[in-house]
Amino acid sequence: MLDQSKHDVFQAISDPTRRSVLKLLTEKEMSIAEIAEHYPISRTAVNKHLHILSNSGLVRSQRIGRETRYTLNPEPLKQIQNWLAFFEHYWDEKLATLKKIVEESNV
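Below the sequence we write its predicted structure tokens.
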């Protein structure tokens, strides 16, 4: 059985709402209430999304009085960048082949 106590970065960004929350947090630090204002879902649902983002290391939380504030931590996104970079040569090859085909058909 999979351990759900620590979420994978890829799993965390697989959900469109979580990707959207990450974009929101690029602008400024926000509370759950501020984040929830942007979505047609409950604060509890937003909190669950934030929990997954937090467990994956993509957001950090800080308790200020009775409020928890969330900020983006983009560092784990490097895992995704590195994974995608592995496939760049594949696309470079495909584009070079396409270029060759197009140039040959124009002759």
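The radius of gyration is 20 Å.
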